[in-house]
Amino acid sequence: MSRWVSLTAIVLLGWGLIPTVASAQERMEDTTARKMPLKVWGAQFEEFEYRYSDDDEELGTWNGDFFYGTDDLKLRWLTTGEYAIDEQAYEKLENQLVGQVPISDFFDAKAGVRFDTPEGPDRTYAVVGISGLAPQWVEIDASFYVSEKGDASAELDAEYELLLTNRLILAAALDATVAFSEDREVGVGKGLVSTETGLRLRYDLIDRSFSPYIGVVHERTYGDSEDFVRAAGGDAESWFAVVGARLSF
Q1: What rounded mean pLDDT belongs to the chain?
Q2: I need a surface site. Which of 91, 137, 171, 210 has the fewest CB within 10 A?
Q3: How far is CA 158 from CA 51, 89, 115, 189, 212, in A?
């Protein structure tokens, strides 16, 4: 009888220890996971679109982000461009190679180099900046640039998304560029250089990796930069109808 009591006690003790052991194992796995940063990689195009302006100008544009690394350090290749279809020439071609690290729960710091290679003089810039989520769920990307000629400028990109339904999203975006010195060769004057505002209505498909959209974009240059554009025979202000897709890989 005592043998059965002992066996029963051992079984009950074993069942009692199982949750404790499982809990300890979960804590060990969680601690190990925190000590080993998760590697991430991928590519995303916030904009991959065709634009048609109010004066019949046609553009192909993109805004892409290729990244690899961990939560503690990411390497990013950021590429943006505008290709004039009729002229068969790049109006804008910009590539950045940056490293990015977290500095708070909502913001990362970045630093690297930027290469501009459009039609005309090329430029290389040092880049520092921050990106993340500001209050009211506004996505912010702010960058400060210094070119090899010593010209400094800053750029602010802001975007807000309004969920009309779980998949139908209205996105409002603002891009603004300010120059602290003049670079006449590339058509940049001191002060507020340009703004681009956009409103896009998209629908998320295929696990949100493919999201077609339609929208409208307004581009405007200011001050001396406007004078440089007009002297070159361009328009200082344009409205575009856009159709495109947001892509994630």
Answers
A1: 86
A2: 137
A3: 20, 28, 22, 23, 21
Q: State both tokens at 135.
A: 């209050």
Strand partners for 17: none
pLDDT band at 24 (very low <50, low <70, confident <90, very high): very low
Please give the structure tokens belonging to residue 112. Answer: 């690297």
Question: What residue has token string 């002992």?
Answer: 6
Which of the pair, 249 or 153, is modelled with greater confidence? Answer: 153
Residue that the structure tokens 């640039």 belong to: 145
Q: Is the CATH code 2.40.160.40 the one for domain 39-248?
A: yes
Per-residue tokens: 223: 């001050």
The DSSP line for 59-89 is: EEEEEEEEEEEESS-EEEEEEEEEEETTTTE
**What span, in angstroms and rounded, lies between the C-alpha atoms of 100 and 97?**
10
Residue 137 in tokens: 């769920």
Q: Name the residue ranges covered by the structural domains of the chain.
A: 1-36, 39-248
**Angstrom distance (rounded) from CA 227 to CA 235:** 10
**Own/partner long-range contacts of 36-39 (Cβ < 8 Å, ≥24 apart):** 37/70, 37/71, 37/72, 38/70, 38/71, 39/68, 39/69, 39/70
The answer to whether 76 and 96 have CB atoms below 8 angstroms apart is yes
| Alpha-carbon span 215 to 221, nearest angstrom | 21
pTM over 0.85: no
Q: How many residues does the chain have?
A: 249
